[in-house]
Amino acid sequence: MDIVLTGTGSPIPDANRAGPSTLIKAGDTHILVDAGRGVVMRMAGAGSLPPLLAGVLITHLHSDHVCALNDVMTTHWVMTQGSATLRVYGPGGTATFVERQLHALEADVGYRIAHHDELTEGPRVEVTELEPGDSFSIGDVDITTAATEHSPVRPTIGFRLTHEGSTAALVGDTLPCDGVDELARNADAYVQTVIRPDIVRAIPNEMLQDILDYHSGVVDAAETAERVGARRLVLTHLVPPPTPEQYPEWEAMAAEHYDGEIVVGDDLTTITI
Ligand SMILES: [Zn+2]
Ligand SMILES: [Zn+2]
Prior knowledge:
Layout: E1 2-7, E2 21-26, E3 29-33, H1 39-45, E4 53-57, H2 63-66, H3 69-79, E5 85-90, H4 94-104, H5 106-115, E6 124-129, E7 135-138, E8 141-147, E9 157-163, E10 166-170, H6 178-184, E11 189-195, H7 197-200, H8 206-209, E12 216-217, H9 218-228, E13 232-239, H10 247-255, E14 261-264, E15 270-272
Parallel strand pairs: 3-4, 4-5, 5-6, 10-11, 11-12, 11-13, 13-14
Antiparallel strand pairs: 1-2, 1-15, 2-3, 7-8, 8-9, 9-10
The structure holds zinc ion (ZN) (2 copies).
């Protein structure tokens, strides 16, 4: 299984980091987890495209994680000439979000149906809303879910994907919690969105201070990885975004608490497990 970091950014605009998303390539089964800013461009860079997606998993409905889902849906629709269904899985609220996105796209859908004989109907998107603890399969990838802790954002869920004996945990924005432990236990790769509380605290911006109470810091992620025996810790959604010269510092901070392999993610960094 390849884990491609299709976006390692956050709400903070960054020329080199697309918004949060991760692409799983399990053989021919491509699964996208979250759909942040620029995801379709990065999918192209990763050798994938929306029509190849067997499913899209959503961790939560914060805008940075879903703002480009409209692009995924539209591109999937146009590139399959309207003949295929895009399957989206997410927490409660996902169906309404998708419905409203499709509503916002109504003018475009109408223009294209009027202009292209091949298109006779709008995008087919099937949404499955998940409860923590749900298990299901996409192709030959087995997926389990658990609740994560990103309050006041509710509900939020993370995912554990298993394919041919390899396991990846992708848990989204969350504080350390039992759900993350469960998903990441003995995983070959534990992908965690992180911030650097020590740097954020020093930035005189009140809204930025608010993010401190609902994200994992680098140390939190490292402690979780160590506690649950994850083989690799993959850091993404890096706030504030580091320059490559700063990566050793982020890595060293995690290494003080965790003995496994540490990856500080760039866009299109690929981890093969
Ligand atoms: Zn986020
Ligand atoms: Zn969030």
